[in-house]
Amino acid sequence: MNFGEKIRLAREAAKYTQAELAAISGIAKRTIQNYESGERMPKKREIYARLANVLNIEESVLLDDTAEFVLKAQAELGARASRQAEQLVEEVRGLYAGGDLADEDMDAMMKAIQDAYWIAKKKNRKFVPLKYRAAEEE
Predict the structure, then answer these.
(1) 14-28, 62-76, 114-128: range with highest mean pLDDT
(2) What Å distances lie between residue 108 and 25, 57, 95, CA to CA?
(3) How is residue 129 annotated by DSSP?
(4) Rounded to whole angstroms, how far apart are CA atoms 49 and 36?
(5) Dihedral sign computed on CA atoms, order 120, 126, 130, 136
(6) Using a CB cutoff of 8 Å and minimum separation of 24, what contacts does 59-66 make?
């Protein structure tokens, strides 16, 4: 179950409309709609905590390996890396959409691709000009 489905089910269980959830959480209604449709995921960890608090569920229910991967990319490498990580996740999901791959195998494949992403980022760091590396380390 992806993040959008989790939000929708939790919202419905709490008997909130999207507009009510938006008003209570302080998150725009359109953003809630984007989360539920799978078009977007939160970019900051505090959004997960805020939604979990409003919906009276554990934050860990909303966070999965994919969300952790995107948040880690954001924290360590910035917005561009976060967008790349999110795009990578979506492309991998699309690759296996409608297939017969077991969930455990899909999770293992996603983990392997995420590990490869981090290895590539570390390996390619040597090609970043020094003036930009100094800015990243601050």
Answers:
(1) 14-28
(2) 34, 26, 14
(3) -
(4) 16
(5) positive
(6) 61/6, 61/10, 62/3, 62/6, 62/7, 62/10, 64/3, 65/107, 65/110, 65/111, 65/114, 66/2, 66/3, 66/41, 66/110
Integer Cα distance of 108 and 75 in angstroms: 23
pTM of the model: 0.63
The contacts of residue 34 (CB under 8 Å, 6+ apart) are 40
Helix (H/G/I), strand (E/B), else coil: 38: coil
**Single-letter amino acid, residue 115:** D
Give the span between the Cα atoms of 57 and 84, in whole angstroms.
29
Q: What is the C-alpha to C-alpha distance for residues 114 and 108, in angstroms, rounded to an integer? A: 10
- Quick check: 77 and 98 in contact, CB under 8 A? no
pLDDT, tens digit, 9 for 90 and up, residues 16-54: 999 999 999 999 999 999 999 988 888 888 999 999 999
Q: What would the mean pLDDT of 52-61 be, rounded to a whole number?
A: 90
85 in Cβ contact with 69 (< 8 Å): yes
